[in-house]
Amino acid sequence: MHHRLFCLAVLAVLMSVSVGFAGTALAEHHGPRHPQRSRPSAQVRQEVAQQLAWIEDQATRLDEAALAPCTPQTRGRIGQLVAEIRRASAALRGLQVELVASIEAELRPTAAPQHPPVREPPPPAPVPPPAPMPPPAPEAMAPDAFRTFLQTLNEEGIESNRMGLLRDSLASGIRLNVEQAVTVMKAFTFGSNQVDAAALMCPALTEPGALVRFTSTLTFESDRKALRKKLSGGCGPK
Q1: How far is CA 116 from CA 59, 110, 113, 119, 193, in A?
Q2: Contact between residue 228 and residue 222 where contact means Cβ atoms under 8 Å apart
Q3: Which of 107, 133, 154 is the last residue of a domain?
Q4: What domain count does the chain have?
Q5: Rounded to two decimals, what is the model's pTM?
Q6: Which structural domain range is residue 76 located in?
Q7: DSSP letter string over 182-207?
Q8: pLDDT mean by block of 10 residues, the chain; 238 residues
């Protein structure tokens, strides 16, 4: 009678252990495989270790109970349940390793994405320096200065002296327009001197078109031919 009661008690313990473990295994199988990020991995490992210790303790008790006098069928059932608990314990240890690896993988910092190097745009082409400004065009004598020059020229009584004064003034850098040059030509009496004066003044002119005016000022065709011969390269600026 006592052996029968003892076997029934062992079976009751086995049923509670198997039901409790079955519920735990079912939750592990159908529930989320990964713990929440808010739980530290050390806490999870501690909880799993406590569950494993509890299972090992129950398995040891069942193993001891199996050695007590009972019917062969009861002892066989006890041994079967003990084997299942130990297999479940081994599976739970595997889950423990997997769980720890998952937590460490989730908490491991991810490498920063690699971006292609940014290429700097090429520097702009150097801007060429501006072209130099052309020198200012020479200006003819001011009207007042020309009147003074012409008066000095007319005061020379000898045309050779007048020619010398014109040559020196041109060498000093005076500039004349076509109208002023024609007026200077008329300051000379002889046609040959007018031809020489026109040839002297050509490089000092500030405007083109003097040849036509010069030849029209001369009286004789011979003087015109002589002037054209002297000024074969043109007269005044190009």
Answers
A1: 60, 18, 10, 9, 87
A2: no
A3: 107
A4: 2
A5: 0.45
A6: 2-107
A7: HHHHTT--SHHHHHHHHHHHGGGBSS
A8: 48 48 42 52 73 74 67 72 74 72 72 76 86 80 95 91 94 94 94 94 90 91 92 79
